[in-house]
Structures are given as C-alpha cells and as structure tokens.
Design a protein that fits this description.
45% strand; three-stranded antiparallel beta sheet; Jelly Rolls; 64 residues; globular; mainly beta
Length: 64
C-alpha cells in the first residue's frame, strides 16, 4: 500500500524524474511543483522519484 501525500514541493534547482510502472517517465524542472493539491481529496504516492543532478534543491510545505 502506498503512503498518503502530506506535502507540496517546488523544485528550486535541478530536475527530478518520476517513474511509475506502466507509464512514460516524467521529468520535472526548475519551478515545477508536485505533491498534494488544494482539495480535500486524499492522494497517495505513486512510483519512484529520482534526482537527475547532484545539486537538486527542493522546498517542501507540509499540509496542515
């Protein structure tokens, strides 16, 4: 079972790749965001996220 999402994040530097089985890889870059959406809907983690550079920086905001 996957974990429930509890934060929202923005990439400040670098890029990440999201790998979900059965789907094409998705690459996120500087300024892209990911995580919970502004709804009451419960969301769950899917796949694996990997940094694509050594100095990737992400800022995280926890859901209240």
């Amino acid at each position: 079972m996957s974990l429930q999402l509890d934060s929202w994040s923005v990439i400040l530097n670098g890029s990440v790749e999201i790998l979900v089985p059965g789907e094409e890889p998705l690459t996120l870059h500087l300024g892209d965001s990911f995580g919970v959406e502004p709804t009451l809907k419960k969301m769950r983690h899917r796949g694996v996220m990997k940094t694509r550079v050594d100095d990737c920086q992400v800022i995280k905001a926890d859901q209240l």
